[in-house]
Amino acid sequence: MRIDLHVHSCxxxxxxxxxxSILELAKKNGLDGVAICDHDTRxxxxxxxxxxxxxxxxxxxxxxxxxxxxxxxxxVLDPDGDIDPGMTxxxxxxxxxxxxAVVIIPHPFKITSHGIGYVEGLDADAVEVLNSRCVTGGANxxxxxxxxxxxxxxxxxxxxxxxxxxxxxxxEVDASERNAEAVLKAIREGKVTAGGRRTPVSYVxxxxxxxxxxxxxIALGIRK
Length: 224
Description:
globular, alpha/beta, 6 helices, TIM Barrel, nine-stranded mixed beta sheet
């Protein structure tokens, strides 16, 4: 199955991607599922899972969160509870494990996007080695090289902040059944490979501008 394990919705302060558009474009772009990982909130993922059921979408939705640790971002998939930002990566992962979650280290060497800068010694199920929003190939290449040396499973994700880019990068998951539980189990077992391509630079720039405008509106109390 083809799953995009790193998608942002309008529940992130820097994304305007609405849930229906994410589900529609995921299907159109050939995905079987998505993990909604908004910044420091599970709300978007939980809402998207409910929405998929409401409209009868067959897209698998895994609720997740991109947690801001003290050294950078960590993807936590299907946690049974909330995780406070600001803790060390190690403590963040401990909390994720307490909540029964799958842990992925996203764009570890992309410092401009809060990459934590290392992966060795972390209790992660996988590392994101193909992040679509890496404008150059350096950060992805380093992640791939390091994870190969350490024997850590490799995954891909679009890190999309715009629905059109959902599935630009993805993870091929060798799951036994077509449901979220089987996908999570396969990730834990390392039955994953990264695939896809980088987002066109024009889209990355557009996403950054849109995100900054949205953050400014929120700061000023402007909803629309």
